[in-house]
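Batch job 17 of 40 flagged for manual review because the log was empty.
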Amino acid sequence: MAKIAAKKTKSKTKKGEKGKVSIRIVNIVVSGQVDQDKIPLEKMAATLPNTEYNPEQFPGLVLRIREPKTSALIFNSGKIVCTGARDLEKVDQAMVKIVEALKKIGVNVKSKPQYTVQNIVASGSIGMDINLNTLAVKLENTEYEPEQFPGLVYKLKGTRATFLLFTNGQIVCTGTKSKEAVDEAVKKLVKKLKEIK
């Protein structure tokens, strides 16, 4: 009997509790600029570990940061794109690591780069099963081709948010630029889905 109860709890946790919305940020993409006009990417690639640089294929250098686990795309103009952080504190820590890496190769960066959030990706569960066939018919701004991919893409009108919805209530939200915008978009989505049900 105890075994059955444990199994039930396990599957419930995996799917997400019925009626309970549970969303977390999984990736923040930011762009910024260091106060230098020219970054010597060749020197950086030759000197530092965890870098990838292939200028014939792409003009930016990839710097992989172990802690916090992030990746930075650095261009010789001083532009930086950083991905992989799950909160803004981790973004700040990554920026400090980027400056440290630049200083190691003799680039005199005076201050931590200012950055702008470009995109936030969040995922989780909205705690209800979703009939994707019904949504594809009743909602505008959807793409659904179950033969190719099991999820439905839905662009939420009046927001920047785009959702990827699955029948078990799992969702991915992309396109927003703040945690508040994610929460607001998810609230609107749940309201819309309840209206359709």
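Reviewer: the log was empty due to a logging misconfiguration, but the result itself is present. Confidence is low (pLDDT under 50) at residues 1-15. Unflagging and moving on to job 18.
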